[in-house]
Amino acid sequence: MPFPDHDSLSTSPGQVNNIAVKMMNTTRLDGNYGNCTRLDSNEDNMYFYPYNVSYTQWACLRTCYQKELVNTCKCFDPDLPYDYDTIVFNHIEKAKGPCKLTNSTNVNCITEVSSRFADRTLKCGTCYQPCNEILYESTQSTSSYPALSYIDDFVAVINKTNPLLLSKLKDEYGDDQVSFAIQSNFLKINVFHQRMTYTTYEQVASYDDYQFASDFGGAWGLWIGWSILTIFELIELGLDMLVYYCYNANKSQPSQ
Which of the chain's termini has less CB crowding within 10 Å, N or C? Predict the structure, then answer.
């Protein structure tokens, strides 16, 4: 789920923005090889239930912030999702209501929690990176828009397609400030793929259980001299001894 206030690009009127994006697919290992959270894990994702979106690390951090408000301030941020009946919040005490900026106690508590969240001292130890993640890396370049040599043509296009808009600009800025009005109210954004390929990063175990078993067997055979054939020979020896013992036991019994 994208968060514009955290991961976004800024622009302003009077600019043409060329944004080149590049896709990156990342796969991480969990368990014995690292810590990551699967996309279907919803215990730390309050955005799943109202919006049906997958887990992201930033969604988990926002959820942690909301939980801390409920735990510490006994209220919740009304700008963030909150549903006590979901598994995200039903294991903690129910909030009394939304946090109110007119309540000085709420304001002081929110300020303290927000400060800890900004300083990364809030205890959000389970907010790991997702095990599977698709990211888009972007590169932005800007230039003036429209170009001074093109403003007259631009005004002509607006006059043809939307004369009412041009009339409003002239009424607000004046007939002699149309160029300034255009540069103060228009921008252009071009978004395109930087290349028609994508990059994949995949974590692979360099030393797994099979490699351990192979190295263990090799070391065992090197230092003790045992091999898989030795194990079968020991089994055969045990069976021979068992047969020999049973034969001698039956032979030693007195005849009736």
Answer: C
d(CA 161, CA 243): 103
Question: ∠ CA 96-100-105 to the nearest 5 degrees?
Answer: 85
Bridge partners (DSSP) listed for residue 37? 130
Rounded distance, CA 63 to CA 1, Å?
13
DSSP conformation letters of 170-226: HHHH-GGGHHHHHHHH--EEEEEESSS--EEEE---SS-HHHHHHHHHHHHHHHT--
Closest Cα to residue 77, out of 61, 56, 91, 63? 63
Q: Label residue 256 exposed, middle or buried (CB < 10 Å: 0-12, 13-18, 19+).
A: exposed
Whether pTM > 0.85 for this model: the answer is no
Mean pLDDT by 10 residues, the chain (256 residues): 80 91 92 86 88 90 93 92 90 90 91 91 88 90 87 89 89 86 90 89 84 79 69 85 80 59
Which residues share a beta bridge with 120?
none
- Tell me the backbone φ, ψ of residue 203, rounded to 5 degrees: -80, 130
What does the pLDDT read at residue 75?
93
